[in-house]
Automatic annotation (TrEMBL):
Pfam families: Guanylate_kin
Top EC category: transferase
Family statement: Belongs to the guanylate kinase family.
Name of the protein in its database record: Guanylate kinase
Binding sites annotated in the UniProt record for ATP: 12-19
Cellular location(s): Cytoplasm
Organism: Olsenella profusa
UniProt domain Guanylate kinase-like: residue ranges: 5-183
Cited function: Essential for recycling GMP and indirectly, cGMP.
Keyword ATP-binding: yes
Single GO molecular function: GMP kinase activity
Amino acid sequence: MGRRARTFVVSGPSGVGKGTLVSLLRERVSSLGLTVSATTRDPRPGEKDGVAYYFLTDEEFDRHVEAGDFLEWAWVHGHRYGTLRQEVRRLTDAGSSVMLEIDVQGGLMVRERVPDAVLVFVEPPSMEELERRLRGRGTESEAEVERRLANARREMAQAPLYDVRIVNDDLERACSELRQVIDTYENNGGPSQDVCDQARD
Ligand code: ADP
Ligand code: 5GP
């Protein structure tokens, strides 16, 4: 059976290292397309419009919702985030697998709309380490850190709904595991028992 382009969703609590992991993976798997999401939150220093996100006003976001332009969208940490259908099309038209780095509500919506999507949940080694990373990143205010930690507990409870779980302890190890998951699903249309077991350990 040949290689098959797939849709991969990566979710996990804020600060677990999704962005870091996905950008390392993309250095190694250049064919993997990453969708750029739309959001109503403000850009962080250094975030460029159209690269990190499409930064939209509430009115612009509303217009896309009304026009049915989103594959999925959700309220996350007090702001709206969504994946534009056009963005997924742009990447799948090129014949490559696509990756969506989105929250759990969005991930479950994608599973309904793209039934063969593969949902990967990234877990922290511990809640203490998650808090260290979130604070260490230094991009959020104290109130925002608290809000994200509270949401993290809720999100972690939904990890069992995902197809694959990866613990981001050592970045290199987690990246190899994610790469193996992608290879397996692209090649066989599903995991062998080995990878399934490894990914859930
Ligand atoms: P997310 O995208 O999930 O919100 P980030 O990728 O921004 O998280 O990572 C949050 C912080 O944790 C960053 O400072 C990043 O450098 C750090 N980090 C990511 N992965 C690891 C890891 N495996 N070990 C230690 N620190 C990590
Ligand atoms: P941040 O503000 O730290 O960039 O992202 C906050 C959260 O929004 C993360 O959990 C991230 O996965 C989620 N997110 C980013 N883009 C999307 C999207 O397009 N849809 C959904 N549902 N969540 C998103």
